[in-house]
């Protein structure tokens, strides 16, 4: 096989065994890598109904055919598992040298299962794997753990680790690398913690087999040059994703006070230009010349890394308008290994519960000291922190009193940083995203603003599906950063040329989107399989707040989503995807995508239907954990 190493490394932490496995070429051709490998492995090898925090769950670190060969923005991996937060498919995409070295070690993916009886670090060095006692690292932050491992193993290794959040199995703990890359929003860090796996250290020196090594070298140089030449490049280097703060404020999409306002009176103070004033450098993923991590000095004089999402969720959404303080909260999230989006979302929920007198704790909006304490308590599961550590879906079940209406999640994953009171297309993107309410599969809100926010047209559905196939399908399977494409306009045909030089095979754009469709459809089948009788189309409906409570401030004051029209869009979306009106893929759709065996298996858990079985359209509501 060219372009792929053709090998997975299976690691059993219970038995302390590492077994390489040659996988068939058809898997690579049909699923490419990354998210594609992850969902196929979970589908085939994970028993239905597995407890996500049990030793039986599998934690997958998967690269793609472009990883680790010196191409622009290709130093990333997908970390995936059955999610303890949502009960469905979960993954994240994170930049790390571990991605590069995993391929140089000779593997396309690591598949970790079992549970070590005491804390452990896995050290993969080419063909050799050792299991190292990590009791001395347990209890350390992700930064401290990586620092110690780096001192021991040097610069030429990749390291992924968890902080105290992962150790304590906070349901939205993620996996951290390089002091600020963090991935796996739906609790991939908790899964790692449940296995007593503190970190993985990966090294290797093998060459990745390529169809056209000389052509690839030239393409890489040309690609980097092309990115540098893009007109938006210099502003991107200055602000990265941070300029979105001003955009969201201007367009009433800024999550504020738990998604009530869409605008924040201190937006300017936490925006891109304010960030530039405290910025000290850029940081980023390996093999990237767009380095979008904005490194700033925080309120304690320490370095912290800022992106739009984490600034808003731990800023305006919790009523905090001091950027240096917001930076401190973000550094804490990275050190503890907590997803900053779910963290800010859960805390916003708790603040509103406090304001409404539904909990005993008094937590004022924007109270920096209280915020720090609460983050610490969440990471260590203390007091109210223990309730929030379960995520907002579970917290709203505990608190009750109608709070599920303003528990801002889809399928249990907390909504990321776009308020959708006035954006039905983006609301549908959250509703149908493959991991819950994350923008990664389809960030359509800026496009939607250009074509008109108010409509619920077919055109929006068509555009959304197209974007999901490319972003959620193709990029997550290539495991290449999507920012060159969607932020600078780096054209998609570059990736076809890269693939040709890597694998020797011609992939048309339509073929690539077909692979994306196969992957996203299998992800949907996985959700349905895990939820079984608890599956319903309500799971594709965003939180009730956006339908029931009009925006309170700003130019879009009064805006609210229309549930009936949303359901119309959802129907159109299902038709477009070849799913029935419960949101379950039809047998013919699965077959067309080459998922015939999977269709049979899915049919043993739920009744599949070619026609649309009647369903009652329910309003957005709290959804069950399977
Ligand atoms: C991603 C999610 C995002 S999306 C952000 S900011 W963003 C938050 N970042 C966090 C962080 O930082 N620390 C922390 N403790 N938690 C955090 N949670 C949030 O995680 C990230 C970039 C970004 S920054 C984005 S949009 C793009 N995402 C990509 C993607 O999903 N796929 C892809 N092919 N390319 C992408 N490129 C961009 O990568 P998750 P990273 Mg991240 C400090 O992990 O789970 O996918 O959630 O990985 O290496 O930090 O790169 O405005
Ligand atoms: Fe990583 Fe940012 Fe570069 Fe993408 S643009 S590879 S997220 S540093």
- Biggest sheet strand line-up: 2-1-6-3-4-5
From the alpha-carbon coordinates, what is the Rg to the nearest angstrom? 22 Å
Q: Give the overall shape, derived from the CA principal axes.
A: globular
Q: Level of helix content? A: 40-55%
Topology at a glance:
Blueprint (H helix, E strand, L loop, with lengths): L6 E6 L4 E6 L2 H7 L2 H12 L13 E4 L13 E7 L6 E7 L1 H8 L4 E5 L6 E6 L2 E6 L8 H12 L4 E4 L2 H4 L7 E3 L3 E3 L4 H7 L2 E7 L9 H17 L3 H7 L4 H7 L21 H7 E5 L9 E5 L5 E4 L1 H6 L9 H14 L3 H16 L12 H13 L3 H5 L3 H8 L9 E2 L2 E2 L9 H9 L12 H7 L6 H21 L4 H6 L4 H11 L5 H23 L13 H4 L14 H15 L9 H6 L3 H8 L23
Parallel strand pairs: 1-6, 7-12
Antiparallel strand pairs: 1-2, 3-4, 3-6, 4-5, 7-8, 9-12, 10-11, 13-14, 14-15, 16-17
Report on this model:
The mean pLDDT is 96. The radius of gyration is 22 Å and the shape is globular. The chain has 26 helices and 17 strands. The two termini are 39 Å apart. The protein is α+β, with helices and mostly antiparallel strands. The site of iron/sulfur cluster has 11 residues, from loops.
């Amino acid at each position: 096989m060219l372009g792929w190493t053709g090998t997975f490394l299976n690691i059993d932490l219970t038995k302390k065994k590492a077994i390489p496995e040659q996988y068939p070429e058809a898997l690579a051709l049909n699923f490419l890598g990354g998210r594609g490998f992850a969902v196929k492995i979970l589908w085939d090898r994970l028993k239905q109904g597995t407890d996500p925090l049990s030793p039986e769950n599998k934690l997958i670190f998967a690269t793609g055919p472009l990883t680790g060969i010196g191409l622009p923005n290709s130093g990333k991996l997908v970390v995936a598992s059955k999610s303890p937060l949502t009960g469905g498919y979960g993954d994240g995409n994170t930049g790390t040298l571990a991605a590069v070295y995993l391929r140089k070690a000779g593997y396309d993916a690591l598949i970790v299962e079992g549970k070590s009886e005491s804390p452990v670090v896995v050290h993969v060095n080419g063909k050799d794997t050792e299991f190292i006692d990590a009791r001395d690292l347990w209890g350390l932050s992700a930064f401290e753990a990586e620092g110690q491992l780096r001192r021991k193993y040097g610069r030429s290794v990749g390291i992924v680790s968890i902080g105290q959040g992962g150790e304590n199995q906070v349901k939205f703990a993620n996996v951290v690398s390089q002091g600020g890359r963090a991935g796996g929003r739906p609790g991939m860090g908790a899964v790692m913690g449940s296995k007593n796996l503190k970190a993985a250290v990966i090294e290797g020196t093998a060459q990745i087999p390529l169809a056209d090594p000389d052509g690839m070298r030239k393409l890489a140089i040309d690609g980097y040059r092309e990115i540098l030449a893009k007109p938006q490049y210099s502003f991107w280097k200055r602000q990265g994703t941070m300029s979105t703060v001003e955009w969201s404020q201007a367009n009433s999409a800024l999550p504020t006070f738990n998604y009530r306002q869409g605008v924040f009176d201190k937006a300017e103070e936490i925006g891109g230009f304010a960030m530039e004033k405290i910025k000290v450098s850029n940081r980023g993923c390996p093999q990237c010349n767009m380095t979008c991590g904005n490194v700033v000095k925080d309120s304690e004089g320490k370095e912290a890394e800022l992106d739009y999402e984490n600034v808003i969720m731990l800023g305006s959404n919790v009523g905090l308008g001091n950027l240096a303080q917001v930076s401190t909260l973000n550094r804490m999230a990275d050190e503890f290994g907590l997803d900053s989006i779910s963290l800010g979302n859960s805390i916003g929920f708790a603040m509103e519960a406090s304001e409404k007198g539904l909990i005993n704790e008094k937590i004022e909006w924007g109270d920096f000291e209280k915020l720090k304490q609460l983050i610490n308590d969440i990471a260590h599961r203390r007091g109210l922190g223990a309730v929030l550590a379960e995520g907002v879906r579970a917290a709203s079940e505990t608190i009750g009193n109608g709070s599920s209406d303003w528990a801002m999640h889809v399928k249990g994953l907390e909504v990321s940083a776009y308020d959708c009171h006035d954006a039905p297309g983006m609301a549908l993107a959250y509703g149908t995203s493959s991991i819950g309410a994350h923008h990664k599969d389809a960030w359509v809100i800026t496009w939607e603003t250009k074509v008109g926010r108010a409509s619920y047209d077919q055109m929006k559905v068509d555009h959304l599906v197209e974007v999901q196939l490319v972003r959620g399908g193709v990029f997550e399977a290539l495991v290449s950063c999507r920012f060159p494409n969607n932020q600078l306009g780096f054209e998609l045909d570059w990736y076809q040329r890269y693939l040709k030089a890597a694998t020797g095979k011609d992939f048309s754009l339509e073929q690539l989107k077909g692979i994306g469709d196969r992957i996203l459809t299998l992800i949907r089948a996985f959700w349905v399989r895990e939820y079984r009788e608890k599956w319903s189309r309500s799971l594709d409906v965003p939180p009730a707040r956006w339908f029931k409570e009009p925006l309170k401030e700003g130019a879009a004051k009064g805006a609210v989503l229309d549930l009936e029209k949303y359901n119309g869009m959802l129907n159109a979306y299902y038709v477009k995807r070849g799913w029935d009106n419960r949101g379950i893929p039809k047998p013919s759709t699965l077959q067309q995508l080459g998922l015939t065996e999977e269709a049979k298996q899915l049919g043993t858990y739920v009744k599949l239907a070619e026609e649309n079985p009647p369903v009652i359209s329910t309003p957005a509501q709290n959804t069950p954990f399977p």
